[in-house]
Amino acid sequence: MKKIILAIFFLFINITETFAVTEPVKVNINEAVNIAVKNNLDIRASRLNKEIEKNNIKSANRLQNPEAGVFYNLGKAGKGNPQQIGISQTVEIGKRKARKQYANAVYELTSRQVEYTEFDLKMDVREAYTNLLAKKSVLNTMKQQELFLNKMVEKTKSKYKSGKVDETDILQASLLLNQIIMEVNSALYDVKTAVYDFNNVINSPAEFYDTKEDKFTKDYMPLVTPDANFKMPDFDVISDKAINNRFDIKIALENIEVAKKNLNLILKQKIPDLEVSGGYAYQNPGQSEDSTFKHGAYVAANIVNIPLFYRFNPEIKSAELKLEQANLNYESVKNKALNDLRKTYEKFLLAQMHLRSYNEKLLKNSADLINASRKNYLEDKIDLTTLISMEESYRMITVAHTYAIADYFNAWNAFIREVNNDDFNIDDI
To answer: 67: part of which helix (H) or strand (E)?
Structure first.
C-alpha cells in the first residue's frame, strides 16, 4: 500500500514539474485586469470592429463615381448628326445623408459592444484570480496540516518506543499523514489547473501570470466590496442607481437607433435620383450639311431609379418589423436586467451571511480547539483517535471557510457584473 501511495505521489510531482516549464510573472489583481484589457487577444480583435465601422462611415459618405462615354455615328447615320464625348454623373437625392446616419448608428452600437466586452473581461479576470487564490489558500492549509502530522507521526513513534501506545497508532498516524500528502498533491494539481484557467482568461501572448498572494488576506479586495458584517440596504433602495449603467440596456437602445436609421435609409430608396451628363459634340466636314467642321458642348439630365414598378415595400416592411423587434427587445432587456440584478443581490446576501457564520461561530472555535487538541496529544492528555477526529473536522471547516470567502467575493463580482459598473460603491447610496 505504501509503495502504491509513493508511486502516485511521484507521478503528481512529475505532472507539476511539467506544468512549471514557464516561470510565471506575479501580479496583483489590478495589474491582472489592466494587462488583460491591454493585451487580451479577443479584446484586440473586438476593437478592430470599431475601426471597421469607422471605415464604413467613410464608405457611406461616398459620392457616386462618374461614367465616361462616347457617342459616334458611322456612315450615313452620322450625316448631320454630332459625335459626342462626355461624362455622366448620378446625383443621389437624400440617400447619402441617410446612409451616413445609419453607419454612424452602427458605429456607436459597435463601440458600446466593445465596452461591454471589455467590462465583462474585467469581471472574468477578477473571478479567475479569486478562484486561483482560493485553490492556493486550500493548498496552504493542507501544507500546514502536513507539517503538524509529520510531527505527530514522530511523536507517535516515540510513544510506541516508550510503551505508551501500540503499533496500530503508528499505522493510523502514518495513514493519516499519507492521506494528507495525497490531498496536498491534489490541491497542488488544482492550483496548477487554476493558474492555466487564469491565463486563459487574460489571454495575453506576452507573459505567463500568477497571483501575487498565496492565500486570502484581510487586504485582498478585488472590488469595493462591502464588509461581511455590513448591513446591506434593501434592494429597492439601490436598484435604480445600480441599473442605470447597464451596457445591455444601452446596447438595446443603440439597436433601436440602428433600426430607425435603417428604416429611414430604406424609405429614401423610393426617392428618384438625378443623372446629369455633359461633354463635347462635333461634326466632321464630311458629315456636316455645309461641309464645314462644327463643334460645341452638350448637357443632359435624366430622372433615374423611379419607383414605378418596384416600390421597396418588402424591404420597408422588414425594416419596420426590425424596429418593432428592437423596441420589444429593449423592454425585455429591462425586465430581465432587474430580475438578474435582484438574483445576484440576494445571492450576495446569502454569501455574506454564510461567511459571517464561519467568522463568528466556526473558524475561531475550531482553530482554538485544534490548537488545544494538538497540544494535549503532544502532552499525552488525549489519544490519537480523538486527535485524528479533530484534525479531520478542522480541515473540513478551514477548507469550507476558504471557499466561503471565494463565494463571497465572487457573489459580489457577479452583482457588479449585473450592475455593469466596477466603480459601484454601496456607500455612495
So the answer is: strand 67-71
